[in-house]
């Protein structure tokens, strides 16, 4: 058969494909493995729906072989295969997806066909790393196999082949290395096994590779003899096949979850909490989330990138999908697996974010409720969490509006004058005196300093509790919240703290009138430094204190002045 040219459109698309659609060359492996998995799924589906006997799920496999000498990489599957006509139409026309067709044909039968392919371009990503691609394939039930070969843009040829096994074998001639690009890495067994783990770990069929290993020859290295080594080969299954998050809760131990977290997200510490959730309906997804124990070193810097891993039907699409996490929960690590995402053509991004927004919204609520239950039922752990990430929650409250504030207000803790322990607003509220009209707070460098403020003493004498705000964002966050259970927040150094009874007030007024001259003289002496000198009976044992007028406290003013313009 003569060389067939790709259709003109295909040629242009192929050029685009090879040069610009994908950001990482390495994903070619993901694409070819996904195709192999689709091919097995199709055959498996056939076997079930048409009652074909003699096919066992356990017999299906995908195999990878790398040969450094011939610079070839081979990917074999024993799936449904392709007839010569299918080779022509599926691989000769770019953007024609046999898989999409299969899916639409079979979806009518109400089958749950979880097939990955849909755009008909993934296969061509092989040309990003290959100078030549050979596809040998024998369709299920066919007599003979056929061979498809192409060296890229020029076209392809279909001929006969001796290869006579059901399924498809794709042989890539890996390009020679250039100064800019290293292609040889795709012939390295460790690199390949790493790529399989990274992108295709949850493909449901075993992905096998012969690993070359070395061992000491028996008897060598003993009794003064030189150690000698020999190489041997061992077949390994590279993928774990069943995602941990797809197993039922009773099948997975806490230890497995902790190890999974540590391995996947590079933490040395167990997570404080594991959140598992799956939903069906408007958005079908499974999420496995972790609350880490400590913040990564760059957490509070611009370098930190938030996001969850995103899988589509078990294949990794994105490593850090930022849209899935609100900023206030940016510390969460984990993943989301969904089969109904609209992916763009490179499968590196999502087409529409409606689905994603829906998932993100639900996850946010779930995270908030899990943190709340942690606060209520596992106080010690929550406080550990709070020390690492409390600041972020407070920033979230400051930046939040509407529902966000409500979501966060019961997650916030402050050190309180009550035994100097951390307290939530709810707990503070529960301890309020019947006549107490406000939630009191003071600001300063440390709880110790705040509790030593003159106004604090008077407040505590009354039996009122005081929140100690020691982070810059604290007072801003409370101002955003405005009220908690209809109780206003009040800075104890603000003017008009109003702790006195009417009688006491009357007495203070009389004293002030009597000493009018003195107060005026003091005001004169401090002119330019203070606005007014007033008598204040609410200072406990202290003779004097500073207080501020207006909505901005002295501490807030300090923070605002220190902010970069
Ligand atoms: P997609 O997977 O999005 O459909 P691809 O470009 O990756 O597009 O593949 C094009 C088509 O080629 C597939 O839809 C499928 O019909 C066929 N194909 C590719 N690889 C295989 C394979 N290993 N076995 C059987 N058919 C295959
Ligand atoms: Mg594909």
UniProtKB/TrEMBL annotation:
Keyword ATP-binding appears in the UniProt entry: yes
Domain of life: Bacteria
Residues the entry annotates as binding ATP: 31, 35, 77, 82, 90, 96-98, 118-123, 168, 347
Record-annotated Histidine kinase/HSP90-like ATPase domain positions: 24-178
GO cellular component: cytoplasm
Compartments where located: Cytoplasm
MF annotations from Gene Ontology: ATP binding; ATP hydrolysis activity; ATP-dependent protein folding chaperone; unfolded protein binding
Main subcellular location of this protein, as a coarse class: cytoplasm
UniProt keyword rRNA processing present: no
Segments traversing the membrane: none
Segments of this protein annotated with the region A: 1-347
Keywords: ATP-binding, Chaperone, Cytoplasm, Nucleotide-binding, Stress response
Xref: HAMAP family: HSP90 (MF_00505)
PANTHER family recorded: HEAT SHOCK PROTEIN 90 FAMILY MEMBER
Family to which this protein belongs: Belongs to the heat shock protein 90 family.
Job description of the protein: Molecular chaperone. Has ATPase activity.
Quaternary structure (record): Homodimer.
This protein's name: Chaperone protein HtpG
């Amino acid at each position: 058969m003569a060389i067939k040219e790709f259709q003109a459109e295909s040629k242009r698309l192929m050029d685009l494909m090879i040069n610009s659609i994908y950001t990482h060359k390495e994903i070619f492996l993901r694409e070819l493995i996904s195709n192999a998995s689709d091919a097995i799924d199709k055959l498996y589906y056939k076997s079930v729906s048409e009652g074909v006997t003699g096919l066992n799920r356990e017999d299906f496999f995908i195999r990878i072989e790398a040969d450094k000498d011939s610079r070839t990489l081979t990917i074999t599957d024993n799936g449904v295969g392709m007839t010569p006509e299918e080779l022509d139409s599926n691989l000769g026309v770019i953007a024609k997806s046999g898989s999409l067709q299969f899916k639409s044909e079979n979806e009518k039968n109400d089958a749950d066909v979880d097939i990955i392919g849909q755009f008909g371009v993934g296969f061509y990503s092989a040309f990003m790393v290959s100078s030549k691609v050979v596809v040998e394939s024998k369709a299920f039930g066919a007599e003979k196999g056929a061979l498809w070969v192409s060296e890229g843009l020029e076209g392809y040829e279909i001929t006969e082949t001796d290869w006579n096994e059901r399924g498809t074998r794709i042989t890539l001639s890996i390009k020679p290395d250039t100064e800019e690009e290293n292609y040889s890495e795709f012939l390295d067994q460790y690199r390949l096994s790493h790529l399989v783990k990274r992108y295709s770990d949850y493909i449901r069929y075993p992905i096998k590779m012969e690993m070359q290993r070395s061992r000491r020859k028996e008897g060598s290295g003993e009794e003064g003899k030189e150690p000698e080594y020999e190489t041997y080969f061992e077949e390994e299954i590279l993928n774990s096949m069943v995602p941990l998050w797809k197993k039922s809760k009773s099948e997975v131990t806490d230890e497995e979850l902790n190890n999974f977290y540590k391995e996947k997200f590079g933490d040395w510490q167990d997570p404080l909490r594991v959140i598992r959730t799956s939903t069906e309906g408007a958005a079908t997804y499974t999420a496995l989330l972790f609350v880490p124990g400590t913040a990564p070193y760059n957490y509070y810097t611009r370098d930190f990138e938030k996001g969850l891993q995103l899988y589509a039907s078990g294949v990794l699409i994105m490593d850090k999908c930022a849209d899935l996490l609100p900023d206030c929960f940016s510390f969460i690590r984990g993943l989301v697996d969904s089969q109904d995402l609209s992916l763009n053509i490179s499968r590196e991004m999502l087409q529409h974010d409606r689905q994603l927004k829906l998932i993100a919204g639900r996850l946010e609520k779930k995270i908030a409720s899990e943190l709340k239950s942690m606060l209520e039922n596992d106080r010690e752990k929550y406080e550990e969490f709070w020390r690492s990430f409390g600041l972020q929650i407070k920033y979230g409250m400051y930046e939040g509006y509407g529902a966000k504030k409500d979501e966060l207000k019961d997650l916030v803790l402050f050190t309180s004058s009550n035994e100097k322990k951390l307290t939530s607003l709810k707990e503070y509220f529960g301890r309020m005196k019947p006549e107490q009209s406000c939630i009191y707070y003071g600001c300063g460098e440390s709880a110790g300093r705040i509790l030593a403020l003159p106004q604090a003493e008077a407040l505590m004498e009354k039996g009122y509790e005081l929140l100690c705000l020691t982070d810059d964002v604290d007072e801003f966050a409370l101002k955003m919240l405005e009220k908690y259970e209809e109780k206003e927040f009040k800075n104890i150094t603000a003017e008009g703290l109003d702790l006195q009874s009417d009688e006491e007030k009357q007495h203070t007024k009389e004293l002030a009138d009597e000493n009018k001259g003195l107060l005026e003289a003091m005001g004169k002496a401090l002119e330019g430094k203070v606005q007014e000198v007033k008598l204040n009976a609410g200072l406990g044992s202290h003779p004097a204190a500073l207080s501020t007028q207006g909505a901005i406290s002295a501490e807030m003013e300090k923070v605002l002045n220190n902010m970069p313009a």
